[in-house]
Write a structure and sequence with these properties.
Shape: elongated
CATH architecture: 3-Layer(aba) Sandwich
Domain AMP-dependent synthetase/ligase: 6-118
Pfam families: AMP-binding
Keywords: Ligase
Strand content: 15-25%
Protein name: AMP-dependent synthetase/ligase domain-containing protein
CATH class: Alpha Beta
GO molecular function: CoA-ligase activity
Radius of gyration: 16 Å
Helix content: 25-40%
Largest sheet: 3 strands, parallel
Distance between the termini: 42 Å
Length: 118
C-alpha cells in the first residue's frame, strides 16, 4: 500500500516486482511521461486496471506503445458498493475489447433503464 501518489510509484513497481495495479488516467499519464526518463524497469507489470475517468485515445495508444506486454483494462466501481462491481476482461478478450468489463460480480444486480422513457 502506497500512502499517496508520487513518482516513487514507478520505483516501487520496479523494486517490488509489482504485476497488477489499479490506476486513474492522470497516473497513467505519469507512467507514460516519466518511466523512461527516470530509468525505471516496469517489465514485471502485467495488467493495469483503469477507471474513475475517461482515458484519451492518444494516451491509451502511447501507453500501449511503451508497454506492449501490459494489459490495459477498463474497470467500473461504485462508491456505494464499497469496491468493485465488475471484473476485468482477461486474455485475448482484454486485448480485443479494452474498454469492456467482463460483467457484474456475483453479489450485484443491474437494470438498464431508458433515460427518455424511464
Amino acid at each position: 500500500m502506497i500512502p499517496r501518489f508520487d513518482l516513487e510509484l514507478l520505483q516501487f513497481i520496479e523494486t517490488h516486482q509489482v504485476n497488477n495495479i489499479l490506476r486513474v488516467p492522470p497516473v497513467i499519464l505519469v507512467m507514460v511521461k516519466y518511466t523512461t526518463a527516470l530509468g525505471c524497469d516496469l517489465s514485471s507489470l502485467r495488467r493495469v486496471g483503469r477507471g474513475a475517468a475517461p482515458l484519451s485515445m492518444e494516451l491509451e495508444e502511447e501507453f500501449r506503445r511503451q508497454f506492449p506486454w501490459v494489459g490495459l483494462q477498463a474497470g467500473y466501481r461504485l462508491t456505494e458498493s464499497c469496491g468493485a462491481t465488475m471484473m476485468f476482461e482477461c486474455g485475448d478478450d482484454a486485448k480485443r475489447l479494452p474498454d469492456r468489463c467482463r460483467g457484474l460480480l456475483p453479489s450485484f444486480g443491474a437494470k438498464i433503464i431508458d433515460a427518455e422513457t424511464g
